[in-house]
Amino acid sequence: MLDLHVHLLGHKDREANRETIRAFLDEATRRGLKEIGFADHDYYWDQMNFPLIREVAKDYPNLAVRIGFEAEYRPHEEDRIKNLLHQFSFDFVIGSVHEFDGWIFDIPEEEHMHHKKDADEFYARYFEVVTLAAKSGLFTTIGHLDLIKVFGVRPRRDILTLADEALTAVEERGLVLEVNTNGRYKPVREFYPEQRLMEEIQRRGIEFTLGSDAHSAENVGRDLEEATQLLREIGVQSVVGFSRLDKVSYTLD
Ligand SMILES: [Zn+2]
Ligand SMILES: [Zn+2]
Q1: I need a surface site. Which of 5, 69, 201, 202 has the fewest CB within 10 A?
Q2: Are residues 125 and 160 in contact, defined by beta-carbon separation less than 8 angstroms?
Q3: 248: Cβ–Cβ under 8 A, 6 or more apart, which residues?
Q4: In Å, what is the CA distance from 116 to each residue of 111, 119, 198?
Q5: Residue 38 CA, ligand 2 centroid: distance in Å
């Protein structure tokens, strides 16, 4: 019913123009979504065109079109993100960690390092940075909570212990976590976050949103019905969208 994580620009595969925006909104409509959220990577800032999205969205009165971005969270760069936040009236902002201590860990070229390094250590360090992201007060949402599993390398320590502080920070700040279905198309072959984390998130009363992380129009809404079903099964009754940083609740029926 909602997809709050799509990349209009992909990895700079296309530009933001009427045609490309329409392709995303048409697919969202075709899939019966009520809400779609554009969340391009902040490093493509200069290619983004928020006013044009707002304008094209007027032709889709039955679809809530939200605008945000996916910020690369690095400690010591909070001012950079704060500055971006002031440049537009965003609906939501995703804070994501794809990199820490100079290691961009989620690119295929780095897969071998996941086997070489100590998984307990890099999981712990990853979640430390996610905790800082959650505490920064910059975001409405934390992206793909357990992205560090992207290549299927698992820690020996319990994931609930490793993620404990990050979850506490998310809870205390009232942030939202997404079920991000894109993990299924990565070597790990499962959604982010894994089922046990989902159950713990639900147990703590943290709210969920949904995201396909589509980098092209055809993947808008991908697997979100299944994600929704999973949430129902663990007792989640509603998911959250955003309008100008305020939560909008959708009942799962
Ligand atoms: Zn991401
Ligand atoms: Zn993304």
Answers
A1: 202
A2: no
A3: 35, 64, 240, 241, 242
A4: 9, 9, 28
A5: 10
Give residue 167's pLDDT: 98
Which tokens is 205 given? 């009363």
- For 28-43, how does the pLDDT look when each residue is reduced to its tens digit (9 = 90+)? 999 999 999 999 999 9
Rounded-to-integer distance, Cα 39 and Cα 41, Å? 7
What pTM value is reported for the model?
Answer: 0.97
Q: Are strands 99-100 and 103-104 parallel, antiparallel or unpaired?
A: antiparallel
From the CA of 96, the nearest ligand is 1
Give yes or no for a contact between 202 and 233, defined as CB atoms under 8 angstroms apart.
no
Q: 163 C-alpha to center of ligand 1: Å?
A: 18
Q: Tens of pLDDT along 143-188? A: 999 999 999 999 999 999 999 999 999 999 999 999 999 999 999 9
Going from the N-terminus, what domains does the chain have, and what CATH number goes with each? 2-251 (3.20.20.140)
**Is-contact 181 223, C-beta < 8 A?**
yes
CA of 205 to the centre of ligand 2 (A): 24
54: phi then psi, degrees, rounded to nearest 5: -60, -40
Type of residue at 136: S
